């Protein structure tokens, strides 16, 4: 012990240069190999829900175990690094959407155990990838809890800092330290060599946790790490020596140095005496000041007899200052107590200070080791580490631990900052969302008003007919500025054609003037007809009124659905609203009863011809309706329908959704009637070939509100067609690449996809290589191997090259859909992100948005209808705005105008829909939405009820 | 249906399901016709490669036709193509072990003829199906 302590004085001083000379670049890199293997962003198989976007932040929230035991040491953390540059979520809005689904490297993933070579593979990607946001060099203490059973070393390295505190409290380091070498049986040839090695090693280990050190490193701040540290580490880890060594090997590969890690305590404990204590001891050894300062009479205290003289003459010599207060403060820090005993006080004079420390005794230098700073809160002056005192190890241990505490604090500050920004952006998103909802409501309202108009016209018409018999006056027609097709009312009696569809289009067209309340009342089955009808309508025969009402409800229903469809489709192809194509007009079967009633009892029965604005002819209104048909309302609506079509629905054929999404509503073509004269225009004015109207089987409702963007990479034409068709059916938007090269290029030019479906065997560039190349610049996009080669080896290869999953060929609809759902599950997250909900918050259920939330907001902020935001032109502008621009504004256009979002209003008063019963939406998606507090009551519920609910809600609140 | 050993209807029906029109079946018809074309081309290429003793090419072609055959549910053709793929890789029909080049060429030669027959069978069946559709 004595000899080693002698030698260590030299080694310790020689050990520090290499330490400080460690190139800073070493530090960030060394820890990474330990961390990244377990953190590769590849979702494992099967993948977890999209990794938390803000995993660190929240994880860090949990108090570090150390924190609870060492609450005494809150050092002001070093100025936190400028987080704003690191955190994508600090960016206002759109960023999380892009990156939300697959967060940058740090997220924790259970490692796939069967991929031995992965660590290196992926390690290559991350640390060097300059584009990647600097991995946060912050230790993430809670990871062991939040993550899983990852590789041991990862686990361990979080582990051992936690072990330290108890160790230190219990174990007098000197004894522990001296036992180490023999206990562990680690051979250490040269103690001195060992000390330097272990110093380095300990540095590495510290850096593994102490990323903040990186920021400090440039400063020559004499942070404590010295030769003493190894002893601490060795001490602290003594219970798990094997594990430790194991892991050290993993860490740096520098096993030679790790082997020495545990061997040095003997050398280092001797130098562990704090500098201050050493100086103090030395000062007292110097008897020339005996009358100023000296040992107490019992040798267990020391006395400053002449404080003034002491400050003036002694302090400067030994402590290089003349501030007694500082001296006393230091004493306090090291646990010295000032003795105030009256008796003894007189021994040395009234002015004398007497200090005592149990381990500070005359001639017992070896006890000095045990003198430790009480609070590791500030950097001791002893950092220079000139001494050999065994106590310095302890001190450094404290310092190390202190640093960890500091880092923890800093981490918490970081996460707080982040949370704050998350919350801010969440609020931002909320208010944006709110405005969108309001817009939607207004839109609905407008439509309802328009409907109201139509029904009024209808009633007027009937009333007028009743009173004036064969002459039909349409008082409102001129008011509506629409060509009043008048009363002579050609009779194009076409019983089979429902007259409903035109209404669906009318709503957007007719200028709104009548009160909203009427519109909504009209929808309420139990509401009195009187409110919507003219007074004269009361005179109507009751059954006619009843029929009218029924019809109206149908109309309204269809119309709502249409709006819903519109807002949904607008998202996928901006600007071009999808004409609620076939879907809008209720299926003939739905209509038959109504038609019968309205036709016979109402229209035909009265000798009035139902205008032939049936579904199929509505858009071709020019042919039938406009020229010959009767009511202004109808012709107006039909005219508008076609107008709407021409304006907004140019490209509706593009979207793959049309037929399938609304399959439930799609009418079968009424062969006998329309085929000839409707001249190829589909129901609802969609110019699709007659055949395509016929939805026979493949009715599928996409589970996502935002169509996933898929890149299909497939060289084989057959498979390509099939897959394309499936994607189309699934409502995905997709690009097709014909080989790997094509795929890489598409990805490389910045196309963003939610998922890549990659064939493996392809000419030019195979899927594996293509994936590998893509992974050079894109680590996030899920790439799914579509292959029939699914041996274990193949799969290993795929995964090792950065593919995320395997879709075995031949796949079917279900396997493909579930694969897409699995990886586009993030569209839920995206939806949340669009709402501004930080995924971490969403996932932690810190927020539970409820339908009532929106009500609250509405109460707080009454809608300002004059707000330009709500003006029609504004809304139209938004519709016409290119998607990109909207994105630039941080708006995901219409993402949250989806029917899904509106579903949350179901609880208010919507009766179950009759026309669509199937619930769709993937379970995962649903689960997540439910987590967010959304109630699912059937996403396919007809929009009319939703709109009604909203409308009623608004009305109620505004009343 | 007796055709089940020719066409796996659990797969093929899914294809049919995607037809939007019952009468024309234009989507699946298109795919199937396309497949015919592809198969013919591939068989021709296989013949060439066999003549040139180009095993890698045979393997690739086998894989290629395997994919589309599988997509249509043409089970037999798919299975045979898979074997060709393996033989081309100098593996046995299960994709393991290893066989000599000569052996591979010999096996492929025999198998190719069989595959073509299986294909004809499937083609007939499908053509009839679409003729009646």
UniProtKB/TrEMBL annotation, chain A:
Disordered: annotated segments: 1-272, 374-394, 576-629, 662-693
Gene3D superfamilies: 3.40.50.2300, Winged helix-like DNA-binding domain superfamily/Winged helix DNA-binding domain (1.10.10.10)
GO cellular-component term (any): nucleus
Cellular compartment(s): Nucleus
Annotated keywords: DNA-binding, Nucleus, Phosphoprotein, Transcription, Transcription regulation
Modified residues (4-aspartylphosphate): 759
Annotated Pro residues bias: 40-54, 134-144
Biological source species: Spizellomyces punctatus (strain DAOM BR117)
Name recorded for this polypeptide: Response regulatory domain-containing protein
Bias-annotated ranges (Basic residues): 151-161
Pfam families given in the database record: HSF_DNA-bind (PF00447), Response_reg (PF00072)
GO BP annotations, alphabetical order: phosphorelay signal transduction system
Phosphoprotein listed as a keyword: yes
Recorded GO MF terms: DNA-binding transcription factor activity; sequence-specific DNA binding
Domain of life according to the entry: Eukaryota
Domain Response regulatory: 709-824
Polar residues bias: start-end ranges: 193-205
Bias (Low complexity) ranges: 1-39, 111-133, 165-187, 252-271, 614-629
Main localization of the protein described in the UniProt heading: nucleus
TrEMBL record, chain B:
Source organism, top-level taxon: Eukaryota
Any Pfam family matching the protein: Hpt
Residues forming coiled coils: none
Keywords linked to the UniProt accession: Phosphoprotein
One GO CC term on file: cytoplasm
Annotated GO biological process: phosphorelay signal transduction system
Keyword Phosphoprotein: yes
Protein known as: HPt domain-containing protein
Organism of provenance: Spizellomyces punctatus (strain DAOM BR117)
One GO MF term: protein histidine kinase binding
PROSITE patterns: HPT
Modified residues (Phosphohistidine): 63
InterPro entries: AHP1-5/YPD1, HPT_dom_sf, Sig_transdc_His_kin_Hpt_dom
HPt domain: residues covered: 24-129
Lineage: Eukaryota, Fungi, Fungi incertae sedis, Chytridiomycota, Chytridiomycota incertae sedis
